[in-house]
Design a protein that fits this description.
This protein is α/β, with parallel strands linked by helices. It is built from ten helices and twelve strands. The protein is 47% helix and 15% strand. Helix 7 links the parallel strand 9 and strand 10.
């Protein structure tokens, strides 16, 4: 009887050990469930222009945060994982889109809460042909580049701000009437800046603007599209018509002298305004227009 009991106890012990091993294996092989993301009632933006538009629409009703550091180019910025996590937690992520912020294309952001504002003007996006090259047996192909500087055209900015207003109305329906009113005021101001650009007299002065970033402006206001090197090579030395040439940043003194003395051309700084700074985008845009108006007046015969 004792021997039978000992055998039975050993069998039970072995069975319990096998069961424990099986449960342990199941725990190791079972997929690890992630804790659900806690959504914050905050709107996070990616570039200075969409941040400015979003803040104007939001008023002080919902918090708006631009996480791209001041001076950082949002087109090439690569946020750290903890910053990406903050975007993931936002009620809305407002981006420019049009392939401008490359990190947004690949980041694990919730699609239902990401607003790519340039989707409002999909049919009007400018595509810059890329270089054709080969990747071995796969043959040749071309990487075209979308001009992501859509907001430079005030009419496009109105459409993009409309996409922001609609998304915020859905996310915060309790503030929808205020968002609608704020957007109407913003759109009116942008249209006034557009009309100011339309009034610029181009009868005696040519405005020359590189395709990137100024393609949308050039198309809207019938400016000439050319880069500085292209313009200097193709423009005759004894050009009879004065011109102004747009630069994102001020060129060197030698370049300005060459433009002035041999091509009757003035260099004009037109800041795209993509990076965060201490000046809101409407101030940046108004300053750009003022510099252009002044340069055209000085260049006119």
């Amino acid at each position: 009887m004792t021997q039978a009991m000992d055998t039975s106890m050993r069998n039970v012990t072995i069975l319990l050990a096998l069961l424990a091993a099986l449960l342990s294996a199941c725990e190791r092989s079972a997929p690890q469930t992630r804790a659900p993301i806690e959504i914050e009632d905050v709107v996070r933006t990616t570039t200075a222009p969409v941040d400015w538009m979003t803040r104007r629409i939001a008023g002080n009703l919902v918090p708006v945060e631009l996480l791209c550091p001041p001076g950082e180019d949002p087109a090439t910025w690569r946020p750290e994982p903890d910053i990406v996590a903050q975007y993931q937690q936002a009620r809305l992520v407002i981006a420019n889109g049009a392939e401008f912020e490359t990190w947004v294309i690949v980041a694990p952001l919730p699609r239902s809460r990401v607003v790519r504002t340039a989707d409002a003007i999909t049919d009007e996006l400018l595509v810059i042909p890329g270089e054709t090259h080969s990747h071995g047996p796969e043959g040749t192909h071309t990487h075209d580049l979308v001009n992501g500087f859509t907001w430079l055209d005030p009419i496009h900015a109105i459409a993009q701000s409309g996409a922001i207003a609609q998304a915020m109305q859905r996310a915060f329906p309790e503030h929808a009437p205020a968002f609608t009113a704020n957007h109407a005021e913003l759109a009116s101001e942008l249209r006034a800046l557009h009309e100011r650009l339309q009034r610029i007299d181009l009868s005696e002065v040519t405005v020359v603007a590189p395709e990137r970033p100024y393609g949308y402006l050039a198309r809207r206001y019938a400016w000439t599209t050319a880069g500085p090197d292209e313009f200097l090579e193709e423009s005759p030395i004894d050009a009879s018509a004065p011109a102004v040439l747009l630069y994102p940043e001020a060129p060197g003194e030698e370049t300005k002298a060459t433009l002035r003395d041999t091509h009757r051309t003035r260099a004009v700084v037109w800041h795209p305004g993509a990076a965060a700074s201490d000046r809101p985008y409407d101030v940046v845009l108004a300053d750009n227009i003022e510099r252009l108006e002044r340069a055209i007046a000085e260049a006119s015969p």
